[in-house]
Design goal:
This protein is of the alpha/beta class. It is built from 13 helices and 8 strands. An 8-stranded mixed β-sheet has the order 1-2-4-3-5-6-7-8, with helices on both faces. A hairpin with a 7-residue loop joins strand 1 and strand 2. 47% of the residues are buried.
Length: 305
């Protein structure tokens, strides 16, 4: 573990009374956690018979690439899972271990085609252009799904941390979807985003990484806030939040409140896991993975284990 992260976690272990200091330490540790998790490359191990189509281009930039993981055997109408990595909008990899390994082990044997995508990052591309990349990638996946034996209508969109924010934007921003020709999908899973109500974050005390991502334009904050954009066209959402990060669950419940007002299914799934563990442990046999599977199946997603 990197020294700065170790120091922060040691501070968190101290018997500090819950309050602003403890919340600050939790968020600070999580921000380093989000960055550190992208350092470890995937093991590259796939379930028996599975195949990987690497670095397919959905745009001209070197970062506009995605990997497609195909389950063993031949098939048609297979469900799709599209994964968007995190990394504070400025780093990360579609091949990171936390992003793909356990998800591949769990969903490929169930006949799911898994896609993991990269996108342009800060400072090259501002957050709104990153959202354009995700939208462009999803539309490209839908256009090519049949080539992989997949059903573009049986698509689940998932992201972690900054990737969860981008998935939240695509799920709630009708104009973004229309601009790129993205067709409806089954459901979205937001893995521990603490940036669903960007405008509220930016008007209060916040970390410098948010200034780099969202700038000082209040009108832009509104346009980058999934909670403010959520409306009738939003697909069912599952917001997984770390109980070790107060702001994450607060943001998730705020999204659920807006969902109730708009008549949109928004389920909150708190987990006593760290920010990185919420990503890494999804796919590991246990109650957490079962609850995510249950939500997706109730939304109409149909893997065939």
């Amino acid at each position: 573990m990197k020294p700065v992260v170790l120091c922060l976690w040691l501070l968190l272990a101290l018997p500090v009374q819950a309050g602003p200091l403890q919340n600050w330490l939790q968020q600070r540790a999580a921000s380093h956690d989000a960055l550190a998790e992208e350092d470890v490359a995937s093991s590259g191990r796939l379930p028996a018979g599975a195949r990987k189509l690497a670095d397919l281009a959905y745009g001209p930039d070197v970062r506009q690439r995605l990997d497609v993981y195909l389950p063993a055997g031949e098939g048609q109408g297979r469900p799709l899972l599209v994964m968007v990595h995190g990394g504070a909008w400025r780093l990360g990899s579609k091949q990171a271990s936390n992003v793909v390994d356990n998800k591949l082990a769990h969903w490929l044997p169930a006949g799911v085609v898994l896609v993991s995508l990269d996108y342009r990052l800060l400072p090259q591309a501002p957050v709104e252009e990153q959202a354009d990349d995700v939208a462009r990638a999803v539309a490209w996946v839908q256009a090519h799904a049949a080539e992989w034996g997949a059903d573009k209508r049986q698509l689940v969109l998932m992201g972690h941390s900054a990737g969860a924010h981008l998935v939240g934007l695509l799920s709630t921003d009708t104009a973004l979807r229309q601009r790129h020709g993205v067709q409806p999908w089954v459901a979205s899973v937001l893995l521990d985003s603490a940036a669903l109500e960007v405008a509220g974050i930016m008007r209060g005390p916040h970390f410098p990484l948010y200034d780099k991502a969202f700038g000082s334009d209040a009108a832009l904050w509104d346009r980058l806030s999934p909670t403010r954009l959520l409306g009738a066209g939003t697909p069912p959402l599952l917001a997984v939040c770390s109980m070790q990060r107060a702001q994450s669950c607060q943001q998730a419940h705020g999204l659920a409140d807006k969902g109730r007002q708009a008549g949109v299914v928004v389920q909150v799934l708190p987990q006593d896991l760290s920010h990185a563990q919420i990503n890494q442990q999804l796919g590991v046999t246990g109650d957490y993975t079962r609850q995510v599977d249950r939500f997706l199946q109730q939304s109409g997603w149909k893997p065939s284990p």
